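Deliverable D5.2: sample structural annotation.
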Amino acid sequence: MIGAKLGQQLARAGSLGGRSIDHLHLADIAEPGTQLTAGFEVETVVADLARPEVASRLVAERPETIFHLAAVVSGEAEEDLDKGYRVNLDGTRCLLEAIRALDGDYRPRLVFASSIAVFGAPLPDVIGDDFRTVPRTSYGTQKAMCELLLSDYTRRGIVDGVAIRLPTISVRPGTPNRAASGFFSSIIREPLNGRVATLPVPEEIRHWHASPRAAVAFLVHAATIDSGLLGDERCLTMPGVSVTVAGQIEALRRVAGADAVGLIRREPDPSVLEMIASWPREFDTSRASALGFRAEETYEEIIGVYVEDELGGTLPVAGP
């Protein structure tokens, strides 16, 4: 979903960092739902990045900028250990090795989509930029390992890497994926569309959010920022909104009214709660903010982005 929105943004802009785009190569494990129309050449490839020969083909033309978003999400990575490591870790290693294998002075900007799941309990109320990464899930462990790889390959001059730790992205459009955090979106998205949503955790759970629009802006900024400003610290936690589930629901009430809130059903799921309870709640992202990364400031703004970008600015349900 984020990759599709990023492609659309690049197509609209026609440039990246002040330089015209002449070719966009889109690779995914599945066929795209729609074809991207742009004022430059767009090539779409269906392939498995965890196969070494695939990564070699993808970088053969020496792209100047690479956005690495491919991943197995949190819930699926926890359920299927082999798949999680093959895709999340081995896929990243294959990509880095394919770049290293090219001769000459090729050193692309590589933007890696990491996650706040690299942090694990016990956690302070607010996590600063220097807090240790001790993940408590396989997904978070895989992302943390990839951050280390990116930093090392950057240190050795193979890539010019930037890792951005994305907040939970909400409100996600479309159908739910297998992320343990998926309910954060569904309890807003489904009621806005007049459908019942399930809430598996207590309302006092607090979490860190940003919209899909903000996520795309993070990626674009990471691709164009002067990497000299980063020094050796190539991993950045992105800004976001810290809000409880109760705060999300109240924001939904203010935007769409009591009828929308009434579509949320409480169905506790201990396995989801166990995973979510070990995740971060709030961050001090002073470093990323000083470097120009921006996100929404309230959860109502995040809901507003969904309404504007996915619903054409009109609520299918009655407003407040």
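Annotation notes: The chain has one domain: 2-310. DSSP finds twelve helices and 13 strands in the chain.
The annotation will be released with the project's public dataset once the embargo ends.
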